[in-house]
Amino acid sequence: MKHKLALLLALVLLAAALVGCATNPPVATPTPEPTQPQVTETPPEDQDPDVTPDPTEPSAFADQLDGIWKALLAEFPDDYSPMTSVITITAENMEYYLGSADVEMLDGCLIEPAINAIAKCLAFVQVSPDADIEAQKTLIKDNVNPRRWICAGVDPENVLVDNVDDVIILVMDNDHPDDMLAAAKAALAEE
């Protein structure tokens, strides 16, 4: 009886293995029709109006700041290691990164650790020359979310906003925000 039961169990396991490993014909999944992105602002004349900037690709503004990024990363090597992300701030993600969609931004980018549990951010936002720079700084300072990272955040006292000419600098850093802001301002003033 035990031998018959063992044989029966072995056959059931063999049948289950064969059924589980059987190949099924591929099922065709319908591909959705691509949709046109909504353009909320008038793009520059040299930009295709149907193309939304990819926030993972550095903007021309970020390229201009490349030397500043490198100098700051060299000065604060432990803050943004092992990897960093340079993110283009767009009309679509402005509210997430700056706290408001009402910032009169011409261009913007930020650098932060690629690991989302490290709460640090350094952003540069170029605003319109006609904008009230103090009002724009207050708008960012009052609305930016210092707890937007997973399981981490920045003390609101360590959220600093200042400017050099028409470029607003946002620093969110619990370790040494004053030093980071001073270094960013000095590097930007040299450009």
Tally of contiguous helical segments: 6
**Largest sheet properties:** 5 strands, antiparallel
**DSSP, total strands:** 5
pLDDT averaged over residues? 77
Contiguous low-pLDDT stretches (5 residues minimum) are 21-29, 31-44, 46-53
Order of helices and strands: HHHEHEEHEEH
Could you tell me how far the N terminus lies from the C terminus, measured between alpha carbons in angstroms?
A: 88 Å
- Rg, rounded, reads 26 Å
Fraction in beta strands: 15-25%
| Shape annotation | elongated
Numbering strands along the chain, what is their spatial order in the largest sheet?
A: 1-2-3-5-4
Name the structural class.
alpha+beta
The share of residues in helices is 25-40%
What attributes characterize this protein structure?
single chain, alpha+beta, 191 residues
Structure explained in plain terms:
Strands 1-2-3-5-4 form a 5-stranded antiparallel sheet, with helices on both faces. The protein has a domain at 60-190. With 191 residues, it is α+β, with helices and mostly antiparallel strands. It starts with a helix and ends with a helix. The protein is built from 6 helices and 5 strands. Mean pLDDT is 77; it is low at 21-29, 31-44 and 46-53. The radius of gyration is 26 Å and the shape is elongated. A hairpin with a 2-residue loop joins strand 4 (159-164) and strand 5. Helix 3 runs antiparallel to helix 6 (177-190). The longest helix has 19 residues, at 2-20.
In short:
By secondary structure, the protein is of the alpha+beta class. The protein contains six helices and five strands, in the order αααβαββαββα. It is elongated, with a radius of gyration of 26 Å.
